[in-house]
Automatic annotation (TrEMBL):
Transmembrane annotation, as ranges: 257-279, 291-312, 318-338
GO biological process, one term: cellular response to lipopolysaccharide
Membrane-topology annotation of the record: Single-pass type I membrane protein
The name this protein goes by in its record: Ig-like domain-containing protein
Source domain of life: Eukaryota
The keyword Cytoplasm belongs to this UniProt entry's keyword annotation: no
Gene3D superfamilies in the record: Immunoglobulins
Length: 372
Protein backbone atom coordinates (compact mmCIF):
# COMPACT_ATOMS: atom_id res chain seq x y z
CA UNK A 1 0.00 0.00 0.00
CA UNK A 2 2.77 2.42 0.93
CA UNK A 3 4.63 1.39 -2.22
CA UNK A 4 1.64 2.30 -4.43
CA UNK A 5 1.31 5.72 -2.81
CA UNK A 6 5.00 6.40 -3.41
CA UNK A 7 4.67 5.47 -7.08
CA UNK A 8 1.67 7.78 -7.55
CA UNK A 9 3.44 10.66 -5.81
CA UNK A 10 6.57 10.14 -7.91
CA UNK A 11 4.45 10.11 -11.06
CA UNK A 12 2.82 13.40 -10.01
CA UNK A 13 6.19 15.02 -9.38
CA UNK A 14 7.54 13.88 -12.75
CA UNK A 15 4.38 15.11 -14.52
CA UNK A 16 4.64 18.49 -12.82
CA UNK A 17 8.26 18.90 -13.93
CA UNK A 18 7.87 17.76 -17.54
CA UNK A 19 4.29 18.51 -18.37
CA UNK A 20 3.64 21.54 -16.19
CA UNK A 21 1.72 23.28 -19.01
CA UNK A 22 0.41 22.54 -22.47
CA UNK A 23 0.71 25.05 -25.29
CA UNK A 24 -2.31 25.17 -27.53
CA UNK A 25 -2.81 26.66 -30.99
CA UNK A 26 -5.48 26.96 -33.67
CA UNK A 27 -7.87 24.20 -34.60
CA UNK A 28 -6.74 24.26 -38.25
CA UNK A 29 -4.77 26.09 -40.94
CA UNK A 30 -5.39 29.79 -41.54
CA UNK A 31 -6.33 31.52 -44.78
CA UNK A 32 -5.42 35.20 -44.74
CA UNK A 33 -5.78 38.19 -47.00
CA UNK A 34 -2.94 40.01 -48.68
CA UNK A 35 -2.20 43.33 -46.96
CA UNK A 36 -4.39 42.46 -43.95
CA UNK A 37 -3.63 41.23 -40.43
CA UNK A 38 -3.91 37.84 -38.73
CA UNK A 39 -3.56 36.50 -35.18
CA UNK A 40 -1.42 33.37 -34.82
CA UNK A 41 -2.90 31.67 -31.68
CA UNK A 42 -0.60 30.37 -28.94
CA UNK A 43 -1.71 30.09 -25.33
CA UNK A 44 -1.66 28.02 -22.14
CA UNK A 45 -4.61 27.34 -19.91
CA UNK A 46 -2.55 27.81 -16.72
CA UNK A 47 -1.13 31.35 -16.36
CA UNK A 48 2.66 31.52 -15.95
CA UNK A 49 4.90 34.07 -14.29
CA UNK A 50 5.70 36.52 -17.11
CA UNK A 51 9.26 37.21 -15.89
CA UNK A 52 10.07 33.48 -15.97
CA UNK A 53 8.63 32.90 -19.45
CA UNK A 54 10.48 32.81 -22.73
CA UNK A 55 8.44 32.66 -25.94
CA UNK A 56 10.07 32.05 -29.33
CA UNK A 57 8.18 32.35 -32.61
CA UNK A 58 10.00 30.89 -35.62
CA UNK A 59 9.25 29.69 -39.10
CA UNK A 60 9.78 25.95 -39.43
CA UNK A 61 11.02 26.09 -43.02
CA UNK A 62 13.93 28.47 -42.42
CA UNK A 63 14.18 28.83 -38.62
CA UNK A 64 13.72 32.57 -39.15
CA UNK A 65 13.09 34.33 -35.84
CA UNK A 66 9.72 36.03 -36.15
CA UNK A 67 9.54 37.38 -32.58
CA UNK A 68 10.93 36.83 -29.09
CA UNK A 69 9.60 37.46 -25.57
CA UNK A 70 12.17 37.17 -22.76
CA UNK A 71 12.86 38.57 -19.29
CA UNK A 72 9.42 40.08 -19.05
CA UNK A 73 9.54 42.12 -22.24
CA UNK A 74 9.17 41.92 -26.00
CA UNK A 75 12.54 41.76 -27.80
CA UNK A 76 11.80 43.50 -31.09
CA UNK A 77 15.51 44.04 -31.81
CA UNK A 78 15.97 40.26 -32.17
CA UNK A 79 13.40 39.94 -34.96
CA UNK A 80 14.40 39.11 -38.48
CA UNK A 81 14.18 42.31 -40.55
CA UNK A 82 11.21 41.15 -42.67
CA UNK A 83 9.05 40.99 -39.53
CA UNK A 84 10.19 44.24 -37.96
CA UNK A 85 7.14 46.40 -37.13
CA UNK A 86 4.87 43.64 -38.51
CA UNK A 87 4.88 41.00 -35.74
CA UNK A 88 3.62 41.97 -32.26
CA UNK A 89 2.85 40.26 -28.95
CA UNK A 90 -0.17 41.14 -26.86
CA UNK A 91 2.13 42.05 -23.97
CA UNK A 92 -0.66 42.84 -21.54
CA UNK A 93 -2.08 39.34 -22.10
CA UNK A 94 1.10 37.35 -21.56
CA UNK A 95 0.55 37.23 -17.78
CA UNK A 96 -2.74 35.47 -18.53
CA UNK A 97 -1.02 32.84 -20.64
CA UNK A 98 -1.73 34.37 -24.07
CA UNK A 99 1.39 34.25 -26.27
CA UNK A 100 -0.41 34.82 -29.55
CA UNK A 101 1.25 36.88 -32.27
CA UNK A 102 -0.36 39.50 -34.49
CA UNK A 103 1.13 39.65 -37.97
CA UNK A 104 0.32 42.80 -39.97
CA UNK A 105 0.61 43.85 -43.61
CA UNK A 106 0.53 40.27 -44.82
CA UNK A 107 2.58 39.34 -47.86
CA UNK A 108 2.49 36.40 -50.22
CA UNK A 109 5.77 35.08 -48.76
CA UNK A 110 4.22 34.91 -45.26
CA UNK A 111 2.60 31.63 -46.27
CA UNK A 112 4.08 28.72 -44.27
CA UNK A 113 4.23 27.00 -40.85
CA UNK A 114 5.12 28.92 -37.67
CA UNK A 115 6.25 27.36 -34.39
CA UNK A 116 5.43 28.92 -31.02
CA UNK A 117 7.67 27.47 -28.30
CA UNK A 118 7.20 28.43 -24.64
CA UNK A 119 9.86 27.93 -21.95
CA UNK A 120 9.22 28.21 -18.21
CA UNK A 121 11.41 26.85 -15.38
CA UNK A 122 13.16 24.26 -17.56
CA UNK A 123 9.82 23.12 -18.94
CA UNK A 124 8.90 23.72 -22.61
CA UNK A 125 6.09 22.99 -24.98
CA UNK A 126 5.19 24.15 -28.46
CA UNK A 127 2.42 24.40 -31.03
CA UNK A 128 2.39 24.87 -34.78
CA UNK A 129 0.37 27.45 -36.71
CA UNK A 130 0.02 27.18 -40.49
CA UNK A 131 -0.82 30.04 -42.82
CA UNK A 132 -2.19 27.86 -45.58
CA UNK A 133 -2.83 30.53 -48.16
CA UNK A 134 -2.52 34.27 -48.73
CA UNK A 135 -5.29 35.47 -50.99
CA UNK A 136 -3.68 36.90 -54.09
CA UNK A 137 -4.06 40.32 -55.62
CA UNK A 138 -7.28 40.45 -57.63
CA UNK A 139 -7.84 43.15 -60.24
CA UNK A 140 -10.94 43.22 -62.41
CA UNK A 141 -12.01 45.35 -65.34
CA UNK A 142 -14.71 45.38 -67.98
CA UNK A 143 -15.32 42.30 -70.10
CA UNK A 144 -16.92 44.29 -72.92
CA UNK A 145 -15.46 46.74 -75.39
CA UNK A 146 -16.39 50.38 -74.87
CA UNK A 147 -18.00 52.44 -77.63
CA UNK A 148 -18.25 56.22 -77.63
CA UNK A 149 -18.60 59.24 -79.85
CA UNK A 150 -15.68 61.60 -80.22
CA UNK A 151 -15.92 64.45 -77.72
CA UNK A 152 -17.75 62.38 -75.11
CA UNK A 153 -16.42 61.28 -71.69
CA UNK A 154 -15.89 57.56 -71.05
CA UNK A 155 -15.08 55.44 -67.98
CA UNK A 156 -12.52 52.63 -68.13
CA UNK A 157 -13.19 50.20 -65.27
CA UNK A 158 -10.56 48.86 -62.86
CA UNK A 159 -11.27 47.51 -59.37
CA UNK A 160 -8.85 46.09 -56.78
CA UNK A 161 -10.10 43.47 -54.30
CA UNK A 162 -11.60 45.51 -51.45
CA UNK A 163 -9.61 43.79 -48.67
CA UNK A 164 -6.51 45.70 -49.82
CA UNK A 165 -6.53 49.31 -48.65
CA UNK A 166 -4.93 52.14 -50.70
CA UNK A 167 -2.15 52.41 -48.07
CA UNK A 168 -1.03 48.88 -48.97
CA UNK A 169 -1.13 49.52 -52.72
CA UNK A 170 2.28 50.55 -53.96
CA UNK A 171 1.28 51.68 -57.44
CA UNK A 172 -1.59 51.76 -59.93
CA UNK A 173 -0.79 52.76 -63.50
CA UNK A 174 -3.04 53.21 -66.51
CA UNK A 175 -1.27 52.78 -69.86
CA UNK A 176 -2.34 52.74 -73.48
CA UNK A 177 -0.70 49.69 -75.05
CA UNK A 178 0.32 50.67 -78.57
CA UNK A 179 2.36 48.43 -80.84
CA UNK A 180 5.48 50.57 -80.61
CA UNK A 181 5.27 51.83 -77.01
CA UNK A 182 3.22 51.99 -73.84
CA UNK A 183 1.85 55.47 -73.21
CA UNK A 184 1.42 56.44 -69.55
CA UNK A 185 -2.09 57.78 -69.12
CA UNK A 186 -2.29 58.25 -65.32
CA UNK A 187 -0.35 57.12 -62.23
CA UNK A 188 -1.31 56.51 -58.59
CA UNK A 189 1.67 56.15 -56.26
CA UNK A 190 2.39 56.63 -52.54
CA UNK A 191 -1.34 57.06 -51.89
CA UNK A 192 -1.67 60.03 -54.25
CA UNK A 193 -2.50 60.70 -57.89
CA UNK A 194 0.45 61.97 -59.95
CA UNK A 195 -1.27 63.89 -62.74
CA UNK A 196 1.97 65.53 -63.92
CA UNK A 197 3.36 62.14 -64.91
CA UNK A 198 0.71 61.68 -67.61
CA UNK A 199 1.72 61.78 -71.25
CA UNK A 200 1.07 65.15 -72.87
CA UNK A 201 -1.71 63.67 -75.02
CA UNK A 202 -3.71 62.78 -71.90
CA UNK A 203 -2.74 65.53 -69.47
CA UNK A 204 -5.77 67.39 -68.09
CA UNK A 205 -8.09 64.85 -69.77
CA UNK A 206 -7.87 61.95 -67.30
CA UNK A 207 -8.73 61.52 -63.63
CA UNK A 208 -9.57 58.94 -60.97
CA UNK A 209 -12.82 58.90 -59.02
CA UNK A 210 -11.14 60.16 -55.84
CA UNK A 211 -14.02 59.30 -53.49
CA UNK A 212 -14.03 55.71 -54.77
CA UNK A 213 -10.32 54.97 -54.25
CA UNK A 214 -10.75 53.86 -50.58
CA UNK A 215 -13.16 51.21 -51.92
CA UNK A 216 -10.53 49.90 -54.32
CA UNK A 217 -12.07 51.56 -57.37
CA UNK A 218 -9.32 52.83 -59.69
CA UNK A 219 -11.53 53.35 -62.73
CA UNK A 220 -10.36 56.03 -65.12
CA UNK A 221 -12.43 58.87 -66.55
CA UNK A 222 -11.22 59.89 -70.02
CA UNK A 223 -12.66 63.22 -71.06
CA UNK A 224 -13.27 64.61 -74.56
CA UNK A 225 -12.41 61.39 -76.36
CA UNK A 226 -10.51 61.71 -79.64
CA UNK A 227 -10.20 59.27 -82.53
CA UNK A 228 -6.54 58.75 -81.64
CA UNK A 229 -7.64 57.46 -78.20
CA UNK A 230 -8.95 54.27 -79.76
CA UNK A 231 -7.08 51.20 -78.50
CA UNK A 232 -6.41 48.92 -75.52
CA UNK A 233 -5.75 50.36 -72.06
CA UNK A 234 -4.16 48.40 -69.20
CA UNK A 235 -4.67 49.04 -65.48
CA UNK A 236 -1.69 47.52 -63.63
CA UNK A 237 -1.62 47.22 -59.82
CA UNK A 238 1.38 46.52 -57.58
CA UNK A 239 0.82 45.49 -53.93
CA UNK A 240 2.67 43.31 -51.44
CA UNK A 241 5.33 42.36 -53.95
CA UNK A 242 2.69 41.13 -56.39
CA UNK A 243 1.23 42.61 -59.54
CA UNK A 244 -1.98 42.08 -61.47
CA UNK A 245 -3.71 43.88 -64.30
CA UNK A 246 -6.97 44.33 -66.16
CA UNK A 247 -7.59 45.75 -69.62
CA UNK A 248 -10.22 47.94 -71.25
CA UNK A 249 -10.80 48.15 -74.99
CA UNK A 250 -11.95 51.49 -76.38
CA UNK A 251 -13.27 51.07 -79.92
CA UNK A 252 -15.94 52.19 -82.41
CA UNK A 253 -15.38 55.89 -81.97
CA UNK A 254 -18.13 57.62 -83.93
CA UNK A 255 -18.05 61.16 -85.30
CA UNK A 256 -19.66 63.86 -83.19
CA UNK A 257 -21.58 66.96 -84.29
CA UNK A 258 -18.32 68.91 -83.90
CA UNK A 259 -16.72 66.75 -86.59
CA UNK A 260 -19.66 67.48 -88.87
CA UNK A 261 -19.30 71.21 -88.09
CA UNK A 262 -15.61 71.11 -89.04
CA UNK A 263 -16.45 69.35 -92.30
CA UNK A 264 -19.12 71.95 -93.16
CA UNK A 265 -16.75 74.84 -92.38
CA UNK A 266 -14.04 73.29 -94.56
CA UNK A 267 -16.54 73.18 -97.44
CA UNK A 268 -17.84 76.70 -96.79
CA UNK A 269 -14.34 78.26 -96.95
CA UNK A 270 -13.55 77.48 -100.65
CA UNK A 271 -17.17 77.80 -101.79
CA UNK A 272 -17.46 81.26 -100.21
CA UNK A 273 -14.17 82.31 -101.84
CA UNK A 274 -15.37 81.20 -105.29
CA UNK A 275 -18.76 82.85 -104.83
CA UNK A 276 -17.24 86.15 -103.71
CA UNK A 277 -14.79 86.09 -106.64
CA UNK A 278 -17.69 85.70 -109.02
CA UNK A 279 -19.59 88.56 -107.35
CA UNK A 280 -16.56 90.86 -107.42
CA UNK A 281 -15.83 90.42 -111.10
CA UNK A 282 -19.35 90.18 -112.44
CA UNK A 283 -21.39 92.09 -109.88
CA UNK A 284 -22.40 95.67 -109.37
CA UNK A 285 -20.41 98.60 -110.73
CA UNK A 286 -20.89 100.40 -107.42
CA UNK A 287 -17.42 100.94 -105.98
CA UNK A 288 -18.54 100.66 -102.34
CA UNK A 289 -20.28 97.35 -103.03
CA UNK A 290 -17.25 96.01 -104.85
CA UNK A 291 -14.99 97.12 -101.99
CA UNK A 292 -17.19 95.33 -99.43
CA UNK A 293 -17.14 92.19 -101.54
CA UNK A 294 -13.37 92.36 -101.87
CA UNK A 295 -12.97 92.72 -98.09
CA UNK A 296 -15.27 89.75 -97.58
CA UNK A 297 -13.25 87.80 -100.14
CA UNK A 298 -10.13 88.45 -98.07
CA UNK A 299 -11.64 87.80 -94.65
CA UNK A 300 -14.33 85.11 -94.96
CA UNK A 301 -12.10 82.11 -95.83
CA UNK A 302 -9.59 83.04 -93.13
CA UNK A 303 -12.25 83.53 -90.44
CA UNK A 304 -13.93 80.25 -91.41
CA UNK A 305 -10.67 78.30 -91.22
CA UNK A 306 -9.77 80.04 -87.94
CA UNK A 307 -13.00 78.76 -86.38
CA UNK A 308 -12.30 75.33 -87.86
CA UNK A 309 -8.86 75.21 -86.20
CA UNK A 310 -10.29 76.20 -82.82
CA UNK A 311 -13.01 73.54 -82.96
CA UNK A 312 -10.48 70.96 -84.16
CA UNK A 313 -8.40 71.56 -81.04
CA UNK A 314 -11.25 70.44 -78.78
CA UNK A 315 -11.92 67.20 -80.66
CA UNK A 316 -8.62 66.07 -82.17
CA UNK A 317 -5.72 68.50 -82.48
CA UNK A 318 -2.97 69.41 -80.06
CA UNK A 319 -2.48 72.87 -78.58
CA UNK A 320 0.63 73.58 -80.68
CA UNK A 321 -1.16 72.55 -83.84
CA UNK A 322 -4.06 74.85 -83.07
CA UNK A 323 -1.87 77.85 -82.21
CA UNK A 324 0.15 77.44 -85.44
CA UNK A 325 -2.96 77.24 -87.63
CA UNK A 326 -4.66 80.15 -85.88
CA UNK A 327 -1.61 82.38 -86.32
CA UNK A 328 -1.50 81.46 -90.00
CA UNK A 329 -5.14 82.41 -90.54
CA UNK A 330 -4.83 85.63 -88.49
CA UNK A 331 -1.74 86.81 -90.35
CA UNK A 332 -3.24 85.92 -93.77
CA UNK A 333 -5.52 88.97 -94.09
CA UNK A 334 -2.77 91.23 -92.73
CA UNK A 335 -0.42 90.02 -95.43
CA UNK A 336 -3.06 90.68 -98.09
CA UNK A 337 -3.74 94.23 -96.87
CA UNK A 338 0.00 94.88 -96.81
CA UNK A 339 0.41 93.63 -100.41
CA UNK A 340 -2.71 95.38 -101.79
CA UNK A 341 -1.12 98.87 -102.34
CA UNK A 342 1.72 97.24 -104.24
CA UNK A 343 -0.65 95.10 -106.26
CA UNK A 344 -2.70 98.18 -107.33
CA UNK A 345 0.17 99.63 -109.36
CA UNK A 346 1.41 96.27 -110.55
CA UNK A 347 -0.45 96.11 -113.93
CA UNK A 348 0.71 99.66 -114.90
CA UNK A 349 4.27 98.83 -113.94
CA UNK A 350 4.18 95.65 -116.00
CA UNK A 351 2.75 97.54 -119.02
CA UNK A 352 5.37 100.27 -118.73
CA UNK A 353 8.13 97.67 -118.53
CA UNK A 354 6.79 95.84 -121.58
CA UNK A 355 6.45 99.07 -123.64
CA UNK A 356 9.96 100.22 -122.67
CA UNK A 357 11.41 96.88 -123.59
CA UNK A 358 9.53 96.92 -126.91
CA UNK A 359 10.82 100.44 -127.72
CA UNK A 360 14.40 99.50 -126.87
CA UNK A 361 14.11 96.46 -129.07
CA UNK A 362 12.71 98.53 -131.96
CA UNK A 363 15.55 101.06 -131.65
CA UNK A 364 18.12 98.31 -131.60
CA UNK A 365 16.67 96.71 -134.69
CA UNK A 366 16.64 100.12 -136.47
CA UNK A 367 20.35 100.57 -135.72
CA UNK A 368 21.07 97.11 -136.99
CA UNK A 369 19.20 97.64 -140.25
CA UNK A 370 20.69 101.14 -140.85
CA UNK A 371 24.14 99.67 -140.52
CA UNK A 372 23.45 97.35 -143.32
Amino acid sequence: MHFLQCVLMLNFIISDDTLGFIVRGPSGPLVVRLGGSVILPCYVETPLVAEQVKVVWKRTDSETLVHLYQDGESRAEAQQQDYHDRAHFFTDQIQHGNFSLRLDNLRAEDKGVYRCKVYSQKVADKTLVEIKDVERLLVSGSSRSISASVGEDVTLNCSVDSHITPEHIEEVSWKKTDEDEDILVLLFQNNQTLSDSSDERYRDRVEFFTDEIPKGNFSLRLKSVRTEDKGVYMCQVFAGGLSANATADLEQLGFSWLHITVLILCIIAPVSALLLCWLVYSGSENQETRLCLQVCLFLCPFITMLLTSIIWHFIEGSLYETISCCMLYILGPLRLFWVTPLATDLPAKILKYVMTAHADHAAFMAVVYSGK
